[in-house]
Amino acid sequence: MFKQNQEDLANFSAPSTNHAHHSNQEDQVETVVGPSVVVEGDFVSEGNILVKGTVSGNVKTGRLLTVEEGAKILANVKAGDAVVSGEVQGNVKVEGRLELTSSARLLGDISCATLVIEAGALLQGKVSMDGIENSSLKKVAKRVKKTIEEDIDAQMEA
Predict the structure, then answer these.
(1) For the chain, how many structural domains are there in total?
(2) 41 — alpha (psi -120 to 50), left (phi > 0) or beta?
(3) Residue 105: which domain range?
(4) pTM metric for this prediction
């Protein structure tokens, strides 16, 4: 019965767009930053995070981060997966899939495994992704990725 209530709450607060979610992420109750809420300072959660307002501080979750259209994150982001429809001003490190919808505005460097960018999204920054197989390109990519990850980690800890 408790599991059913969690699923109902997760479905209630989930964004209306249909995005692929990992089954283990659906079991977590989402933290919602409402449209009129402004969070100042670092924001860390073990579950999914849905941002509808403004966060002026680093955001970290091992699960799914959703930034809705009209929402803003003014700092660095670290997440398992992320869907951005709003604005992010800071570096973004995603372990899995990062999706930028057509209304997304991202100013910062990205490190992710999979990147999806819809037409109309705006991105300014460096992109580093896993999967470069050519050995000379792989060495360059590894150096760039390490530098970006060190920068993101250092700023997340500061």
Answers:
(1) 1
(2) left
(3) 2-157
(4) 0.68
